Amino acid sequence: MTSAFAVDRAFAAIAFKRRLAYKAQWVVALVLGGGAMLVSMAMWRELLAGGALSGYDWDSMRAYIIIGFVTATVVFGAADWQVADRILDGHIAVDLTKPVDFQRARAAEYIGSMVSTVPTVLVGVLGAWLLFDPPGPATPLAGLLTAVSFVLVFPLAFGLTYLTVLVCFWTKRYLGVMWLREALLGFFSGMVIPLAFMPSWLQAVAWALPFPHFTTTPAAIYLGRVDTAGALGLLAAEAAWTLGLWFGARIVFNHAVKKVTVHGG
Amino acid sequence: MADTLTPDRLTARHVGAVYRRALLAQIRAITEYPGDFWVMASAGVMWNVLQFAFLTVLFAAVPEVAGWRYHEMLMLSGLLTVAAGSTAILCDGIWSTGQMVLKGEIDYRMTRPAPVVVQVATTHIGMQGFGEVGFGLVMVAYGWIGAGLGPASLPLVLLGIVCAVVIECALITLFCAVNFWIKGPMSNFAFVMLDLQHHAMTMPLGLFPIGVKVVTMFVVPVAFVNFVPVAALSGHLAPWWVIGMPVAAAASVLAALGVYRLGLRSYDSSGH
């Protein structure tokens, strides 16, 4: 058991160090995430100057946008290409001969790469806090449960990403698959616009998917839009999606691996 | 004989023929992988369907953003999408500049009788561009009709599209050329420009401080890709601003070619 966790830790540490080696990526991520955050702030400040819209006033929107920045930076900054490339360039053939579980090893690597985005998040949040002075969590317990929701985003993001990366067994490129996933994630998570602005049928579609747990769930808990029971329910749904995607990916992998193509025969 | 052509004899006709044949070869290559083509084209469409959905949801709650109405904002997003999608079709290979510089792959292209920038630009086609251009044109047309702009404005719309494509291709080329000096496999400067453009330039410039307006109009003229043409068409800017569109296009092309040429001069291959 300890040995298995040691392998996970080793994979995570290697992925973390590999990402740290490319320090320019920190700056790029900060500029991209920070730029998107500033544009959102400018737009919503203008729109909310006359009062609240769909239950959001300028105070709550500032906190909402910063929460969106945190999850976007962590999720979009992870090393999904590294997993895809192992399938596309045939390295998976070697991986399958190793005495480690392929999915678990990739999960450790992916989460290690997500952790490497934390410095970018910290700098971005600190800057945003100084510039925009957002409100704190509704209650200390809400703050704690928001942190739990953020922690669950790590395995949830892996499950979603891994499941979509497995499409590379059928396609020979990953870029389009990645864009499709990121577009859907950005919209249905509420990163682009809060779900409360959407018509009820579109909100129902969003809540039938795992995406809202990337932004709407932590924001709803943080801003006190749900009580403690509601927050625990949202966290339970987030955890259920994490488990569902994990085991769903195992089933898909067992079918997909039969399609593996290794150059050179 | 083509292989005896010296740079002095590289006529526009010859360069155009090389460009056309290289691009057609790429199109033939991508048709060998129809699954990938459809995934990429769908991804290009999906981004814009969701941008369309975002604007529709937003404008169900507010009548305007900084004085801009729904159909004008659709044109703003649509024109940027057409421009960005066109670069993926016309010069997507330029994103490989950094990779080629690192690996010394420019050497081989310098020995051939065609401009290096043309050869690099045509090494790849971004298949998402087909979806982006198609759906972007739908957004522009829908916005144009919805905004009540008559057929008289059609020549201006066409001029706006042509200038937008030229400016976008030139600016991406320019920022990818930065990799001649700042070495790295990723074209971070071009990527940052494109990403910030997709966030900021799909909004009215009136939302931002004066510094952003000055930079986007006169330093890195991304405002002339979509903001200026749509603002001039819809009356947010005086009509004489349209003169700036071909001027910005010409200036961007000259700057891009100049920077790329300077980059080639400083290129010292790999392993030295």
TrEMBL record, chain A:
TM spans (from-to): 26-44, 64-83, 110-132, 144-171, 183-209, 229-249
Family annotation (InterPro entries): ABC-2_transporter-like (IPR010390)
Keywords annotated in UniProt: Membrane, Transmembrane, Transmembrane helix
A matching Pfam family: ABC2_membrane_6
Region forming the signal peptide: none
Name this protein carries in UniProt: ABC-2 type transport system permease protein
Automatic annotation (TrEMBL), chain B:
Keywords of this entry: Membrane, Transmembrane, Transmembrane helix
Keyword Transmembrane tagged: yes
Protein name in the entry: ABC-type uncharacterized transport system, permease component
Lineage top rank: taxon: Bacteria
Transmembrane segments: 37-62, 74-95, 116-145, 157-182, 203-228, 240-260
